[in-house]
């Protein structure tokens, strides 16, 4: 299977072609529920992570949410 180049939080990396956002998060060991994933300036709903396919040159931001005061 070939690789494609993407960016995650400003860092370029190669991932397997036809990976889903869920695959990407598992590979990067992102766990928990208090985060959002943005692809090309659009937030992806969590219930779509398993079906959204990562594409060449996608730009992702994975942002953790924190509470407190």
Could you estimate the helical fraction of the residues in percent?
A: 10-25%
Unreliable runs:
none
> What is the CA-based Rg, rounded?
12 Å
Q: In the CATH scheme, what's the topology name? A: Ubiquitin-like (UB roll)
Please state the average pLDDT score.
Answer: 93
Number of domains: 1
The CATH homologous superfamily is termed Beta-grasp domain
From the N-terminal CA to the C-terminal CA, the straight-line distance is: 47 Å
Structural class: mainly beta
Order of secondary-structure elements? EEHEEE
Percentage of residues in DSSP E strands:
35-45%
CATH class: Alpha Beta
Using the 3D structure, state the CATH architecture.
Roll
* Strand line-up across the major sheet: 2-1-5-3-4
Number of strands: 5
Shape field:
globular
Characterize the largest beta sheet: strand count, sense, and whether it forms a barrel: 5 strands, mixed
The number of distinct helices, counting runs of at least 4 residues, comes to 1
